[in-house]
Amino acid sequence: MTIETHAGPRDVIDSPEETAQLERTWHSPGGFIGWFTHVNQRMIGKRFIITAFIFFLLAGILGIVIRLQLAAPEQQLIGPELYNQFFTMHGTVMMFFFAIPVMEGFAIYFVPLMIGTRDMAFPRLNAFGYYVYLIGGIVLFGSLLLSMAPNAGWFNYVPLSGKLYSPGYGVDVWTTMITFIEVSALTAAVELIVTTLRMRAPGMSLNRMPLFVWAALVMSFMIVFAMPAVIVSSTLLILDRLMDTQFFVVAGGGEPLLWQHLFWYFGHPEVYIILVPALGMISTIIITFTRRPIYGYTALVLSVVAIGFVSFGLWVHHMFTTGLPQLGMSFFTAASATIAIPSGVQIFCWIASLWGAKIRFHTPMLWVLGFFAIFVIGGLTGVMVASIPFDTQVHDTFFLVAHFHYVLIGGAVFPLIGATYYWWPKITGRMMSEAAGKWSFWLAFIGFNVTFFPMHQLGLEGMPRRIYTYATEMGWGDLNLLATIGALVLATGFGVTLINAIWSLFRGQQAEPNPWGAPTLEWATDSPPAFYNFRHIPVVASRWPLWDWERDGERAVVTGLRNDRREVVLTSVLDAKPVGVQVLPAPTIWPFVSAVAASIGFVGIIFHPIFFVIAFFLVFFSLVAWFWPRRPWRED
Amino acid sequence: MDNELDKGVLRHPLLLWTGWLVGPAAWALHLMGSYLLISRACETGAMWTLHGMTLVTLLMALVGVAVAWRQWDRAGRRWPGSGDGKVSRIRFMAVMGWLISALSALLIVAEGVPNFFLSPCL
Ligand code: HEM
Ligand SMILES: [Cu+2]
What we know:
The structure holds two protein chains of two kinds. Chain A is built from 19 helices and five strands. Chain A is mainly α. In chain A, the strands form two sheets. Chain A has a three-stranded antiparallel β-sheet. In chain A, strands 4-5 form a two-stranded antiparallel sheet. Chain B is an all-alpha fold. In chain B, 74% of the residues lie in helices and 0% in strands. The mean pLDDT of chain B is 86. The chains are: A mainly alpha, B mainly alpha. At the A-B interface, α9 and α10 of A face α2 and α4 of B.
């Protein structure tokens, strides 16, 4: 392995035979069976993204149905029982099956490209995580079709979700599917951490890492620290429900508040798990569309890291109305208020970056500006509900629904759609239509505010959340109708993007390698990249490698990796000095088989304990096959 | 040259993580410790345990600040850029370190203040 410098943007040293061999080595097999064997990080990342957006669509439809039901007083479109299932499914799917996986998907797809490597550290584990996620989502929606869907809200509080008040399979399905998604998230997180810390292109020391990679790294650490809490709590609950343990049952000496602590110890960071990668996307887009280095790189990294750890000290603010000691709660108010500091630093750096810059108002930038408008309102109402007296007033009303949609849609979905427009050419090789993108943005922006702004007022007037209808005399009808109309406009806005995306696949303009003139490595290869991502692993000397290369007219690359097996460069944690070569495994069906085997166990155990035994053996055999030692003479 | 530079600034590159870790650890300790001590403080009326907790963890976070600040000092106390190779990376880690620890110290103070005003028994 050596490092060489070349003039010109494209590589000149390759013979076509070598390139063809490299292509064969990294190729993902075609065909139906072949599809289940893919392990390349870009295949898996793309699947995560597409699957997550399908869940977004489904959960969005549920949201629209909820809005239709609430459009006028005393409607009977869906009854109370179905309404409970719908808002539970809407919340659960949006939070667990859309927001987290879509962020993981973008990270899995783009982190390796941005740090200049060919795949992730554990490609097969990646595939396993995807199948677990896919199966979990399908089973969850299947339960809705069978009217077995969970109905105790997205945070599934005990005692409501205990056996006494929720007989039937709904809550069992919830706890099990949550475990699925947690397992999948943990595999992705471990994967991302190791890849980011050990596989960066030579020269990319920590202080040169792209901001989105920092965000993905922080997200991954947060997943690792937060997710176990909810795995524990849902396991305890399933034990309560299936084995008659008494962890949460007061009569048996259990403690219902334990559920709330465990859930929100995960649940609050989860909101930031969704937000942090979105912050990374915003920085990335701002850099490209102002065409100059971001203001305050160190401050931005600091605030992302700070948000990451401070978010673990806020969870009790979801429990202000549970009668905990006041002094104890005040600690969490202090932390809730302090997190405004890093968030403020973040916003300040962005404004400073935009100030006086020649901003190019392409669609991705528009969504980012939309984020600013919406997120500021969401932040303001957030500060309001962080105050205990105010929270006591609006707790469990539509004010809260308004607040968290402002934060979640404004803070995560808007940047996400912006990032989709931004990276679309890299993923598909086609540009989406700018005109349709702008229509989509304005429809969504207006529709969003018309939907959710009136909900603040409804909440202050006392309209509780999670009610399937309300009496005419309450006088909530007009604002609710307005909100429903807004929701339809919002949905139309997202729909335009969907159509734009599909249309571009057939008619979109061909994308060049770097259509936006961006500075980071994912744009240093073809659009879409070949299976091996980079013909040669790049070497970087600053935060903005592509701009350097443009200026200097030359670039350094790593040469000497073998073409006949999947080799990647390992580098040191702080400085990204090359320290070795790692050989990655080839495509295989076993991660898929293991995921199916594990699912049989998890799902079956809801119905009969024997499935535990069956799945134990199935998983054992599939893991043996998965880890069967690779014979040395094959060296693949 | 690289190794000499490291020697001049720190004993071991891993120490660069001190500020990153000590501050948040102190803060987590403060949050959990104080939360646990409340019911005790209510029974015995001994508020000093809570204040003690704040003081000890605050000192711990400040140690984090100090260590990282010293690293920064030795690496030239300039704001980290993206060029300059290794010095720049040391500055980056050190600056991040002391800022993280400082933020943790601020959190500890913010959480310690209510101890003077609220009764633990409410
Ligand atoms: C398509 C646009 C959306 C519409 C029209 C919509 C509508 C609603 C409505 C009306 C409720 C309140 C139901 C009730 O309490 O009675 C609700 C709850 C909720 N929504 Fe949305 N929503 C949308 C998008 C999202 C997104 C993108 C997320 C998250 C990323 C999300 C997360 C939630 C959560 C967590 C709840 C609480 C569920 C519960 O009470 O357990 N929503 N949504
Ligand atoms: Cu929270």
